[in-house]
Amino acid sequence: QFVSPLVAARMLGLSEDQAVAACGIAGSSHFTLGGVVAGHLTNMKNTADPMATEAGVRAAMLAATGYSGPVELFEGKEGVFDVISNVSWDADKMLHGLGEQFLINECGYKAFPTEALTHQPITAVMDVMSANGIDPHHVAEVLVETTTRGADILSDPSKYQPRTKETADHSLPYCIAVAVTKGNVLPSDFQEEALTDPFVWEMLSKIKVVANREIDAMFPAVKRAIVTVTTEDGQSFTQQADHAKGRAENPLTDDELIDKFRANASHVMSEAQQEKVVSATLALETMPTVGEYMRLLTRDR
Question: In terms of residue numbers, what domain contains 210?
Fold first, then answer.
C-alpha cells in the first residue's frame, strides 16, 4: 500500500505531487497487518497483498484526476512513524540509493507455494534427501532448526494436523513431510485429497521443529535453516540452507520457472495455451502491446 501507488503513478506518468498524493491515499486507507499470517489462518492470507496492490493502483488513478491525499504520511503527526512507535525508524533508508540501486534485481521467485519461512527448511531437506539418496520409507526423524518465529507460528500444534489449504501451506511440519515423501512441494499438495495422504501424515509425526538462537541472531539478513535427517539404521545427515531456492542468491533456472508456471496453470489452462504463454513471456519485449500478452492469460479449461 506504500510502494504499489508509486509504481502505478510511474506507469501512469503522474507528476511528483500526484505520486505523493497516490501514496497518501493508499497508505491512509489500507494497512496490512502481520496477523493475517499468524494464528488462525484464513483466505485473507493470500489476498492481503493483492488487495493492497489493487488499492495502490486505484489510489494512483484517483491522484491522476487531482484527488489529494496526506503528504506527511510517514513523518507527520499521527503518521506511520508516530503511530507505530515501538520500533526504531530510519527514514533515510527509504531513499537510500534512490535512482541508483534497484531492489528489483535482488528479488526472487517463490520456488514453493508456501509461507516464506518454510522455504529454507524445504530447500535444505530436499538437498539432503537427494544428495544422500535417502529413501523416505526409512526415515526415522527429521529435525528442523529455524528461527523462533518459524518454530512458533509455523509449527504450533494445529500445524501438525492441517485440515485446510490455508493451514497446510503455513505448516512447516506438513511442508517438510511433503518434501521428504514426494521430493518436492507443489500446488497439488494442498488440494483437498492430498491433505489426507497417509504417507505424509505418517511422516508428520516424525518432524521436529526447534528454535535456534544463533539463527535468530542472523535474521532477517540470513534466514538460515538446518535440517538433520536420521534414518532407521541410526545414520544422520545434516544440511544447512542460508538462501532458499528461488532467492537471488540461489535463483531458479528458466526451466524451473517454466515448470512452476505449468504446475500453477495446469488446472485452468490446456497445454497448448500454456505453451503460448511461455513463448510470449520469453519474447515479451517484442510484443507491441501489453494487452496482446494479457489476452493470453485466460483460462480455457
Answer: 116-241
- Indicate whether 122 and 229 sit together in one domain: yes
Are residue 55 and residue 146 in the same domain, yes or no?
no
Mean pLDDT for 240-249 is: 96
Give yes or no: residues 223 and 281 share one domain: no
DSSP secondary structure, the chain, as one string: --SHHHHHHHHHT--HHHHHHHHHHHHHH----GGGGSSS--GGGGTHHHHHHHHHHHHHHHHHTT----S-TTTSTTSHHHHS-SS---GGGGGTTTTT--GGGG----SSSS-GGGHHHHHHHHHHHHHTT--GGGEEEEEEEE-HHHHHHTSSGGGGS--SHHHHTT-HHHHHHHHHHHSS--GGGGSTTGGG-HHHHHHHTTEEEEE-HHHHHHTTT---EEEEEEETTS-EEEEEESS-TTSTTSPPPHHHHHHHHHHHHTTTS-HHHHHHHHHHHHTGGG-S-HHHHHTTS----
> Model confidence over 50-63: pLDDT tens digits?
999 999 999 999 99
Read off the pLDDT of residues 77-117 as tens digits, 9 standing for 90 and up: 888 888 787 788 888 887 888 889 888 888 899 999 999 99
